[in-house]
Every structure is written in C-alpha cells, then in structure tokens.
Amino acid sequence: MNKTTDPRPLLEVKNLEVDYLTNDGAFSAVKKVNFHINEGEVFGLAGESGCGKSTIAFAVTRLHKPPALISGGQIIFDGTDVVKLTETQLREFRWTQIAMVFQSAMNSLNPVLRLEEQFCDVIMTHTDMTKEQAIDRAMKLMDIVKIPRERIRDYPHQFSGGMRQRLVIAICLALNAKLIVMDEPTTALDVVVQREILQQIYQLKEEFGFSILFITHDLSLMTQFCDRIGVMYQGELVEVNASQEIRHNPQHPYTQKLWSAFPSIHEGRKHYTKTEGFEEQTITL
Amino acid sequence: MQPDTPILEMRNVVKDFTTGGGFAKTDIFRALNDISFSIHKGRALALVGESGCGKSTCARLITKIYEPTNGQILFRGKDITEIKGRQEVLNYRKSVQMIFQDPFGSLNPTHTIYHHLARPLLLHGMCENNKVKLRTRVEELLEMVELPSLTADKYPHELSGGQRQRVNMAKTLAVGADLVLADEPTSMLDVSIRIGVLDLMQRMKKEFNLGFLYITHDLATAHYIAEETAVMFKGQIVEWGDTTEVINNPQHPYTKLLISAVPDPDVRFADVIKGDLDYSDNAHHIRSISSAHSQQVKQVNHNHFVRQLAG
Lengths: 285, 311
Known about the structure:
Chain A has ten helices and eleven strands. With 285 residues, chain A is of the alpha/beta class.
C-alpha cells in the first residue's frame, strides 16, 4: 500500500498445520503454512477446491469444527496468539477484531428474524449500546452499503442475493473489525453483481482501512483485487508474491498451470479489427 | 454460412407465466419475449445472461416441460407441440438431452456409474440386454469421455464434480443424442477442471456432430466453446451473432456492461474503479433502458445483430 510508514503485519500465520481426523488416521489439510497480512492490505489465497484455503480461513477465526484440528503453529493477530485464546476470549475476539463473509454468505442471515434484530444482536453483544443506538448504527451501515434505511424491518428473503451479500458485509463493518475474511464472497453471484459488490468492498476498504483475507478460485479476479497472493496446492502454500508478479512472472509450475487453465476474453479484444466493407443496416422484425 | 436445416429452431417464441392466484390477484409475467434462434449440427450456441433473464426457460420449452404461449419450436423442421404419443415423445427425448449445473444432484447416489449408463442404453434400445455387451458398451462410453473403465463400478460420491459431469456427457452419448442442452454445466466446477470438461464438449461437438445449446452467465466459457452467442436480458435477445464479433465488438449497452464486469487480470482494480466510479448507477441505468421490448434491429456485420433500444 502507499503508506509511508513500514507496514506492520496485522496477521501472522506461522507454520500452521490443520489436520482432519478420519477413520484412516489424520489427513493433513494444511501443511506448515506461513504468510502474513499487513495493515490495510488485501491478501488472496488461490487454489482449487480441497486445497485447504477455506480450512485456513476457518482456522484463522478458530471457527473450524471437529474433525478439523489445529495440530501446530501460531496465528498471531495484532500481538495475540489466536490459537491460545479461550472460548470466552474468542467470543470477544470474533467480530470486533476479525469479521467473516462466507461463501453463500447470503444464506448466513437468519431467515426468521428481521434485519433489525440481526444487526442489534451483533452490535449489542459486543458493545454497551442501547437498542436505539444500535438501530441508529445499523441504519448508518445500511447507508454505507447503499440499501434504503426503511428496509431494516424486512426479512432476508425479501432481498436479492446481491443485496443479502451486501447486508452481511454491512454487519461485518458494524464493529470496525481490523481484518475481514472473505471466503468466495461473490462466487454464487453473476458477474455484474460481483463487480458491484467488489467495487463497494474496495471503496469501503479505502475509507476504513481494514485488511482483507480474500479467498477465491478465480485467479483473474484475484489478481485484479489483491495486493499479494498466495497460491495453495494440496495443503501447501507453493508461492507467495505480489499479484502482478504472480500474473507476469509465476515461479511455481502449479501457478503457471492455473494461468493456462483459462483463456481470458480480454486477450482477443485487444487485437480486434472489424472486417472492412460491411454496410450496417437497420431491420424491423 | 448455414450448413443445413437447423436441428432446432425457435421462432418468435413467447412464454408467459401466471403469478399469484388463489386469493391474490393474478399477474402475467412474460419470461420470454419474441425469442428466435437456431442450433445447427456440430455447432454450439451460447445463451448468455444474468439469473432470471429466461435462459433456462428456453431449455425447458425445448425439452417440452413447458409449452410456448406463442411462436413455434421446430425440431428438424417439425413443430414440437405436434410430437405426441409415447414412442414419438420417447424418440424426441432421446434426441434432445440435458446436462445440468449440479453434478452432485444429477446422479443417483444409490447406484453405480454402470447403472447410470446401462439404463438409458436399455430404455432407448441402444444395446441388447446382454451383460457382456452392455458392459463393453459402457466401458466404451467411459473411454469416450476420458474416464478409466474402472469408473463403471464406482458410486457417484467417489467421483469429483468434473468426473461426474463427464458421466453425464457419456449418458448423452449413450442414447445417441443430436442436441445437448447444457445448462451451466461448468459453473459449479473449479476453474482448473472447467477447461477439461469444455474440451470434451468441444470434441463431442466435432466427433459426434452434436449440436449444443450452452446456457451460461459466464462469457469466458461461452467464448471458449460456442461459435455463436446470443446475449439475453429480461426475456429478450439483445445482441447475437458470431461469438468473436459479439465479444470483441459489443454494441448493445447491456453486452458492454457484461463484458466490462468480467475481471481482466492485467488491470488493477483500483484503476478499474477510477474509470467508473458510479458503476452501480450505470448498471442500473443500463438495465432500465434495456428492458423495454423493441422491434428494431441493426445488422452490424455479416453475422452480428443488435436490438436497438426502444423509444
């Protein structure tokens, strides 16, 4: 980022190992992974499904459930080791320090509660605000993600998929978390809506200065959106570099393979010339 | 340009759905408004659009799940509403096969892959009911879709999404389909797996002379597989023609919007935003001007047409 001070790592993941206990013994999903995320930085984790990228996202917030188990390593967030936190400390830690947007986050809203209650739930659990103050805060958050205030009394099913995704992002912003983990936040949406949401996330990040851990399998999108990228393959982080380096100078054969996996539609567009000599005409059907 | 009579032709098809009813007031929702296109042997037509634009409704009309409200659907020149009677319908269903988006839901978890392939062979009388012959044919089919013959004894849960989609393709080959309606067949697959499945579709198209209707919201895959593309918005085809023309020289504001939303890895997001601060408002504006029905079409190139905005 273009900050003058030396970037201080906000999150440092050191030798992280996550195992899944199965009938055939432990399966190591994440093998000695090291990376860090600086303040205000967007860090991306790329890789195919099953490579362990979502497992890392869950581990960072300690939301992984058995049979997953952190078997080694440290997750240092702003000076504290997340791995050592107790359940009570974790309750305090989640949302205020790290917030999360999951894949199909639009389904993570409670269908039987009005939005108002869902916002208040998060805000009032973590702060001393009264209900009125919490609602006021919720309305301001809705302004930020450009959803009309009066819809706060609606239920989740009354919103479109893209709007629900924006609402989840608004809830993430409620407590000024320093890091937002986004696991495939736009995968279920179509391209235009995806672009709208990413633009909003980007502008919010510029305004509030939080960091993002961004996970997707779409390498083109990731290169556009992230400052640095880590490429994962079978539980190992095979390459970490600035996104432009990953794009133009991929080192690991797997990264090279990922790039060749899909031709971009923009390539052809850059070299297009229109065929000469065709006269345009208007037809009425 | 046109090699022969199309396998399938949609002529000014309109489909209305009635909403409400009971105690609520009824309303008519026009899902398809004057849709015309044709699909030829050995070629693919991509139908591209956002969710809810009517692209899957087209596939449902073609499979005779719904009847069109107006207009005609011709299969090898014959109106499909006239296809009646058990044998005729069976034959039609044999010729027109579907591949669905969800490879996890489209195979029965309690049966082996052998069962999934042998059953259509028997149902459509494509193979004698003889264990050895069926087995050989199933293994041949698996080989065609680049799966090891061992796959026959596996259950769907033992296969990856890409492998399951290959089994679905083997199914369409088993019955000797002429036309495959592929509804987002790769959107649930990983980017790294997609290309393999698309390459297989490409091969099926060439080697078996199949016609494809490729339904997607993803221009990038459409561009890879289809010779022709039709961009749909709110039940209307707004721009259609050769895929390269539509993608490289888009004319309709909605097509331009779609293309601009496809991430380009060579442009930083910060720069993308700078050029387009009011993206959401623009998108909203384009949607509202594109939704009205219009009869005016501009021909931009030999095979490239754009519907003009109404009003």
